[in-house]
Every structure is written in structure tokens, then in C-alpha cells.
Specification:
Blueprint lengths: L5 H18 L7 E5 L3 E5 L3 E5 L5 H16 L15 E3 L2 E7 L4 E3 L2 H12 L14 H10 L5 H22 L7 E3 L8 E4 L4 E3 L6 E3 L2 H12 L6 H11 L9 H22 L6 H12 L15
Antiparallel strand pairs: 1-2, 2-3, 3-5, 4-5, 6-8, 7-10, 8-9
Helix pairs in contact: 3-7, 4-5, 4-8, 5-8, 6-8, 8-9
């Protein structure tokens, strides 16, 4: 299970019990799988519960709609448990119930490329997906952070403003692509089953925007953090059919992605002061962005 204080597990467990009581589901023997931005629990009967952060009921409703839409278009993804009126909201937190996937491992960049190529070719759904807006979550996470010194916070605020201005100019270009996006397309959001099927996970970030956003998530693992190899990235590009790093807008999307990853680590360090790596990592990442840690690629450590 991902690192989390005992009280986080206890809180999500209470939410789980209340939600399952409403849905008529059994919770005896439920086990936490991952307690992070969303809390994931394994339930009896090969079901999985996902507990969102407060105030995200609308997003959970969209997630259910997206999952059913993907099923209709033949793209493997996590499936909502049938026959349930969901999501259920308990103390402001939306709870959704899903069919448990078969035994699986984390996906590969090649599997991600296959899934993105199929996803980006689909027509937009009849239900509404909001346009991609990367900066709201970034600003919220940074503003809530209490672990960074004021000079760093001031620098990050100014840096974010500059990136947002450049993003607005990019969106005005008439040649910009537009399609359905996963929104957080990294290999941790792909599960590869033993039968060879790769499934898309974490559907709550689906949005509409330039396809390059989804491709950048993998590219930065080569150009920014060196967490994949050149052959792996070449396989990704070969399967998808393009290399986003050659696109004129890549440096901007790369910078936004790096800032997003930094803001995430700042939130984890703030919420979990005993986390084994988050505080050191957010300070290191900010130093990288500020040009104090040498050129890319850097050696970023995952903050689960």
C-alpha cells in the first residue's frame, strides 16, 4: 500500500463503510490498495471502491460516463460495477465501485501508445467534456503548500503566470489539434493483464484538448527525468506515429508538466509531513525548475 498515515486509512475506511451500506455492498475483509489523491479499496466479490477527494462528485459522474463510453468504443478500460446507482457521496466525497481487473502489472510506454492512438482517433462523446485547463489544479496545490520558503513560492507564482500566458497564446493557434484526452497519460495509469490486454485507469481527468498533451506525459520521462530509455521512447513514437518532442509547442507543454509534477509533490509534502521522500523531492524539483540543479534530464524520485 502507498505510504499514508493511519488516520488517512481510517477516514477513508469510514467513508467506504458508509457508501457501501447505501449501495447494499459487503465490506467485511475490505483492504486498502492505495491511499493517495484518491483512496482505492478492494472489496469482496471482485470489486474495487474508489473514494475521491471532497467536492468531486461531478467529476466522478463524468468518470462513470467516460468508462461506459470507452466500453462502447471497444477501448479496454476499468468498468463500473453494473446495477449500482453511483456515484454515492459521503461527507462530500464521491465513492464509485468498479469491477476488479484480472491479475496485472503496470503498463509499458508501448502499451500506452497503442491506447492513446485508439483514444485520440475517437469522435468526441455526446456528453460534455471540459476543455483542458492545466493551471487551476497547479495553483491550488501550490497555494496550499506550507513546505516551501517564501522566495521559492514567489518565483513559482511568477513562473506559473508566464507559462499560463504562453498557454493562452498556444490555444489561439488555428493549427492546434483537438481530441479527447486522458489527461494524465503515464504508464502508472495503464494496467497490463496476463492475457496481454492493457487497460486504461484513472478516467477522472478526461478532457478535450491538443493530443500533444497526452504525448508529453511520456516524453518528459525521457527529456526531463530520464526515467525511460531512448529505445523505449522510440518504441512509443513508432507505435503512435509521431515524436512530440519535435513539435514547436513541446517545450511549453514540457514545462507545464514539470510544474504540475512539482506542485503534486508539494501537496504530498504538506499533507503528509512524515512522508519519507516528499519534502526533499519538492525542494529538489523546485531547484531544477529554477535552474539550480543543472540541465535536463534530472534525477527526480517518484512521490507515491
Amino acid at each position: 500500500m502507498t505510504f499514508a498515515p493511519t488516520d488517512s486509512v481510517t477516514l477513508s475506511g469510514r467513508t467506504l463503510i458508509a457508501a457501501c451500506r447505501k449501495l447494499g455492498l459487503e465490506t467485511t475483509g475490505a483492504e486498502p490498495i492505495r491511499i493517495a489523491e484518491n483512496a482505492i479499496w478492494r472489496l469482496p466479490g471482485q470489486l474495487v471502491a474508489r473514494i475521491a477527494r471532497p467536492g468531486r462528485t461531478g467529476i466522478a459522474q463524468r468518470e462513470i460516463a467516460v468508462a461506459n463510453w470507452l466500453v462502447d468504443h471497444g477501448i479496454p478500460a476499468v468498468r463500473p460495477a453494473p446495477g449500482l446507482d453511483q456515484p454515492v457521496t459521503v461527507d462530500g466525497r464521491a465513492v464509485t465501485i468498479w469491477e476488479e481487473l484480472p491479475r496485472h502489472r503496470d503498463g509499458t510506454v508501448q502499451e500506452m501508445a497503442h491506447l492513446l492512438k485508439a483514444l485520440h482517433a475517437l469522435p468526441e462523446p455526446e456528453f460534455e467534456l471540459e476543455p483542458l485547463e492545466p493551471f487551476g489544479k497547479i495553483r491550488t496545490r501550490l497555494n496550499q503548500s506550507t513546505v516551501l520558503e517564501e522566495p521559492a513560492m514567489q518565483w513559482l507564482a511568477k513562473y506559473t503566470d508566464g507559462l499560463e500566458e504562453a498557454w493562452t497564446r498556444l490555444l489561439a493557434r488555428p493549427d492546434l489539434s483537438r481530441c479527447v484526452l486522458h489527461g494524465d497519460a503515464w504508464v502508472g495509469n495503464v494496467a497490463s493483464a496476463e492475457n496481454g490486454t492493457a487497460y486504461l485507469l484513472d478516467l477522472d481527468g478526461f478532457t478535450i484538448g491538443p493530443r500533444e498533451w497526452d504525448l508529453t506525459s511520456t516524453a518528459v520521462k525521457l527529456t526531463s527525468t530520464s526515467s525511460i530509455t531512448h529505445p523505449e521512447y522510440e518504441d512509443f513514437c513508432s507505435v503512435y506515429g509521431t515524436d512530440v518532442t519535435t513539435w514547436h509547442g513541446y517545450p511549453l507543454l514540457r514545462d507545464i508538466r514539470e510544474l504540475r509534477m512539482t506542485a503534486y509533490s508539494a501537496r504530498i509534502a504538506t499533507e503528509h509531513p512524515n512522508h519519507p521522500v516528499a519534502l526533499d523531492e519538492v525542494q529538489y524539483r523546485v531547484g531544477c525548475l529554477m535552474g539550480q540543479r543543472g540541465p535536463r534530464p534530472w534525477q527526480w524520485t517518484a512521490v507515491p
